[in-house]
Amino acid sequence: MLKDLFGKNYVTVKTRDKKEKQVKKDVMPDNRLWTKCKSCNEIIFNKKLTENLMVCPKCDYHFRLPAGERIKITLDEGSFKEFATNIYSVDPLQFPDYQEKLHKAREKTGLNEAIVTGEGTVGGFPVIVGVMDFYFMGGSMGSVVGEKIFLAIERSIESKKPLLLFSTAGGARMQEGMFSLMQMAKTSAAVKRLHQQGVLFISIMTDPTSGGVTASFASLADLILAEKGALIAFAGPRVIKQTISADLPKFFQRAEFLLEHGMLDRVVNRRHLRDELVKILSIHQTGVKSNVK
Amino acid sequence: MLNNILDFERPLLELAGKIKELQSFMDEKGIDLSEEINRLKERTENLQKEIYAGLNTKQVMQIARHQNRPTAEDYVQHIFDDFIELHGDRRFGDDPAILGGIGLIDHTAVTFLGHNKGKSTKENLKRNFGMAHPEGYRKALRLMKQAEKFNRPVVSFVNTPGAYPGIGAEERGQAEAIALNLMEMSDLRVPIIVIVTGEGGSGGALGIGLGDKIMMLEYCYYSVSSPEACAAILWKNSEKSSEAAEALKITAAPLQELGLIDQIIKEPAGGAHKDPAEMARTIKAVILSSIKDLSQCSTAELLERRYQKYRNIGRFSYDDQLIKPQDILKEEVD
Questions:
Q1: What pLDDT sits at residue A72?
Q2: pLDDT in tens, B90-128
Q3: What is the per-residue DSSP string for B195-261?
Q4: What is the mean pLDDT of chain B?
Q5: Taking CB atoms and an 8 Å limit, are A233 and B206 in contact across chains?
Q6: What gap in Å lies between CA B52 and CA A268, rounded to an integer?
Q7: Which domains does chain A have, with CATH numbers?
């Protein structure tokens, strides 16, 4: 039993449907035999890289993960049930090229939108989970992403199941203008109710998390974890560099930098992330039980 | 002074010059030109109406960013009978980019918050052009919590190009400061009235901009990102900013049509800076009537309404409208 909870056997899930295969083909490197590490230039065999959860075995560089892969390595095999699958973006401002970009993003990722939400178990603990996908228009938050996060939070409140949100975003979805900006307010208002109802919320920031997502729900969790080396920012480094016209400090806006400045609970290597989550959920559940008695 | 004339105002300026010329000519020579002068005055008025009715987004932004645009401080002086500024976030420092305090508007005690730009370069440097750091947002939250304790309505004036993108701001948690404000403002147990008085720059504006009633002065903009940045990011071309400005729908009228703001407050002819006192009188009346309206419902009702207001923001569909249906169907059947 304990082995089940803390075991590391989580790369064995097989690709289940066509959609995921599509993701793999486009954004995962399995159409070649090897991948060059973006950080240390090491040539890594793809098999090895996948086994290592897309973390460079030499330098620990964390490759970005599509939502499907994230769910696979985090949730118990076969436990994930997606909800809110039938919400689609419209083009409320008739913004130039938006429909075309949406269309392309869907084809590329096999996803409807930049977030997948659902429920499942992690180490046997039931959770509500939301996973953003950077490959879908830079993980940007528009009406649909906001609504799906809102619904996940509501589901979490109703079921009292802990909420895990994996964020990655370039910021707000510009093509939806102020509708996007207001999703910051919408999701934050929902998080307030989650806290009032005493439900656990763990935010996991992955590379990169910036703009309106960082400045709303992602920063409002009980526990904020970040993957090693993840860029976490309000304003991106390029904008800051331009504004102050000076060089930025080393590791500026990296997870380790934020930890040092007190903005995160923990920086976690992806290979230990699931174990940490299970540990937190386990401690938390014990706490909740004793409280109820 | 000439630097502050906007391009589209030049024809008006020329007419004003002519009127002045005729006036002095008339005074000098004792010839009656009043008919001619009146004609010109009428023309000026019509032209002004025409120009201001047909402003494009970029031109509205020019007015919103006008150097003489009244600041939060100007409005406070005109609107409040008594006002006392309160400083500091009790954590790190005091941010002059956000003005906060308490005061009386016609015997109603109110907590005031507002991005505060400067009028001169020197003052603007001090106030960082109204671009707040985390301590500004945290000061605002402190004052809002205080307002809640004493059951005072909060009035918040938004006028910022954005939250400051700097090293210190990031180190001290700009994102967290804004996020926390959003969360707490969504449930603050007193009415919150928000008025965009100039620039509504993205998250930096929203950081003190969540409330029960969101209003905009006529010549303002409120945007998810500056059109300049939007064009640079989406089209890798900041020269397309006029195009981006139109596409983003950031002025008061389209935002009201989209249901994203509640009310537009009319500005004096030519913009708030032409007659700050008149602008302040209008705003004061709107604030008072808004407080009166919002005070009529119970706290629970107020909070539920606010929650629903934000819950309902967003446009999406339960049908797939954009992708060809057969694409999805094929996938699911397979």
A1: 96
A2: 999 999 999 999 999 999 999 999 999 998 999 999 999
A3: EEEEEEEHHHHHTT--SSEEEEETT-EEESS-HHHHHHHHHS-GGGHHHHHHHTT-BHHHHHHTTS-
A4: 92
A5: no
A6: 56
A7: 15-63 (no CATH), 64-292 (3.90.226.10)
pLDDT value of position B324: 44
Pair of tokens at residue B24: 């002095």
pLDDT digits (tens, 9 = 90+) for A212-243: 999 999 999 999 999 999 999 999 898 898 88
Q: Which amino acid does the sequence have at B141?
A: L
Residue B116 neighbours by CB under 8 Å, 6+ apart: B71, B72, B73, B96, B97, B98, B99, B127, B130, B159
Question: The domain B62-311 belongs to what CATH superfamily?
Answer: 2-enoyl-CoA Hydratase; Chain A, domain 1 (3.90.226.10)
Which backbone phi and psi does A121 adopt, to 5 degrees?
-130, 150
Substitution target in A234, A243, A260 with the highest count of B β-carbons within 10 Å is A234
Domain locations in chain B? 2-54, 62-311
Which of B57, B128, B182, B189 should one mutate to test binding to chain A, selecting the residue with the greatest count of A CBs within 10 A? B182
Please tell me the least confidently modeled range out of A237-241, A264-268, B168-172. A237-241
> Band of the pLDDT at B300, cuts 50, 70, 90?
very high
Angle subtended by helix axes A67-74 and A270-292, to nearest 10: 60
Partner-chain contact A234 B319, CB within 8 Å: no
